[in-house]
Amino acid sequence: MSYPYQIKSFHEYKTEYEKSIEDPAGFWGSIAEHFTWRRKWDEVVNWNFKEPKVEWFKGAKLNITENCLDRYLESRGNQPAIIWEPNDPEEHHRTLTYRKLHEKVCQFAHVLKNNGVKKGDRVCIYMGMIPELAIAVLATARIGAIHSVIFGGFSAQSIADRLEDAQAEYIVTCDGAYRGAKDIPLKSVIDDALIGNKTVKKVIVCTRTRTPVSMLKGRDLWWEEEMKQVEEKGLNYIEAEEMDAEDPLFILYTSGSTGKPKGVVHSCAGYMLFTNYTFVNVFQYQTGQIHFCTADIGWITGHSYIVYGPLSAGATSLMFEGVPTWPDAGRFWDIVDKYKVNILYTAPTAIRSLMGFGLGPLQNKDLSSLKVLGTVGEPINEEAWHWYDEHVGKKKCPIVDTWWQTETGGILISNLAGITPAKPSWATLPLPGVQPILVDEKGNEITEAVDGITSGNLCIKAPWPSIIRTTYGDHERCRVNYFATYENLYFTGDGALKDTEGFYRITGRVDDVLNVSGHRIGTAEVENAINMHAGVVESAVVGYPHDIKGQGIYAYVIYNGTHMDDQSLTRKDILQTVTRVIGPIAKPDKIQFVGGLPKTRSGKIMRRILRKIAEGEVQSLGDTSTLLDPGVVDEIRDGRL
Ligand code: PRX
């Protein structure tokens, strides 16, 4: 199998890029010809960033699962679609061929239908990284329902908020999940999330850990039991629901600088096209190769580059249940060796953490199958880049530094492996169809360079096929968040540099969003959680550089409650509250108790000062004269952790 739209040279990249800008409709229209449609489009693209309204392939009808499964049954039916490596290396791995995956997806689609799920209904999926998670995702899409996958590290409260926001009626979960040495009791978290919930009708529970779970009569059903009924009836096929190109495919919640996480909505056709196109081009996927993306399907990276991108390309996607450091820090290398992985796609935080274990875990591991390495989720520092290049890629594998976001659906800026040049810690060039622009605070394009480098806020001028369509249930929020900061531009929230060759380097968020181990967390969200703790008067949260996580969470807390004599215990109490409200991923690394916070006369917290103190740059705090009480700065600085 070949991909006619796979770019094969730097020259071709340039001509394709130009074509995509001059004639987006012609460019994407001809790529779309290589997919399966029930009906073709009337118009390739129609958009304005004012409302915003973006429509790709209007009038077309399709089902993404026919593109991921049915169309490969004949040519690749016996080839592996998903290879699953369990948490415990002693447990047997599983392989699902395209035929088997198709069958399982159809069967589970029947289960969903039997339980009342209809087109457009929201199905929340809260599972560990087992093949049934991918099956649940695809089965939901098969019948035209909307999946909303929630990462296993979120708390009951976070799930409850998401269920409420999405008005979800169905949940698919597991009894528990294995992650390294831990068992996470997923069903029990769901039970807590459902206290007071009024919308959820059915919960389907897949057995994994066989940890004891409560099963409520009439609401909770076992996955195996439901599947058995379908299998016994021989219901191995289900007609895919015919979807409009712009019908929603899924909702994925992500953090912003204000308020609660928002439900980013992606639609069927554009998302399918762009994840496929970027998968094939960025990683230069060749038929038969094994692609190992280490992300969790609970995040956008897993949606786009474990499930939809690879499967729509007929690829073999390796899915791993566990963590990189269990049973030891050689786990990734064992997996590469065992399955002869060709493409490894991971996060800088994982690389930095593995670097800390030295070269021992790499010894006697055959990594010679690797052809392409990738990183995603946060800026990669040069040291980590070179370690990855030398010790994992043995200097013969191109590294793709892929910049994108939940809202972008797929990779927007990245080198193409072995085709366009790489530059350590630079994401480099935009993909065809992507028009970045750096602007100043007022939205004017920055053209002035210092030593050949321009620096500004990263925006995108025109839509690519998998751009966010709306935030679920609140279109105005989508407009305000992404399209209102600068007129007629999509604002990414990131800052970036651009060099004379037109390469981009992403420097990090310029809003109040943190990136902790590649996970996006809003400072406001963490503050709200801390403020819910009894005795907390006020708090302010900022990020600071962290060797492994990229950014750590630093919280300044005014507390006048009980047990203040034991600060260390009170800190732990506060961490418990954050874990309950958001989940363990949002726990601050440092909590400093303070008497006051630096505020302007109008009552605004001067985060700039708090950030500097957290970063340890106490000499250069800048102008503090506008503060209501400049004295608090000295106190905070002196008490720095
Ligand atoms: O700040 C950028 C950072 O991750 C943010 C998006 O986070 P999320 O929506 O969770 O998606 C992560 C996976 C796509 C961006 O705004 N980011 C992502 N990739 C890179 C990056 N920063 C620098 N370099 C990257 N390659």
Features:
Acetate--CoA ligase, globular, eight-stranded mixed sheet, seven-stranded mixed sheet, 30 strands, GMP Synthetase, Chain A, domain 3, alpha/beta, Rossmann fold, 641 residues, binds adenosine-5'-monophosphate-propyl ester
Overview of this protein structure:
Its EC number is 6.2.1.1. With about 650 residues, the protein is an alpha/beta fold. The chain contains 19 helices and 30 strands. The longest helix has 17 residues, at about 100-115. Bound molecules: adenosine-5'-monophosphate-propyl ester (PRX). Adenosine-5'-monophosphate-propyl ester binds near residues 254, 300 and 378.
Main sheet makeup: 8 strands, mixed
CATH topology of the domain at 89-244: Rossmann fold
Principal-axis shape equals: globular
Low-pLDDT stretches are none
Number of strands: 30
What's the overall average pLDDT, rounded? 97
Question: What oligomerization state is this entry in?
Answer: single chain
Please state the second-level CATH architecture of the domain at 89-244: 3-Layer(aba) Sandwich
If you compute it from the alpha carbons, what radius of gyration comes out, rounded to the nearest whole angstrom?
Answer: 24 Å
Structural class: alpha/beta
**Helical percentage:** 25-40%
Proportion of beta-strand residues = 15-25%
Q: What is the CATH C level class of the domain at 89-244, in words? A: Alpha Beta
Instruction: Please work out how many helical segments DSSP would assign.
Output: 19
Strand order of the largest sheet: 12-11-8-6-7-14-15-23
Termini separation comes to: 57 Å
| Heterogens | adenosine-5'-monophosphate-propyl ester
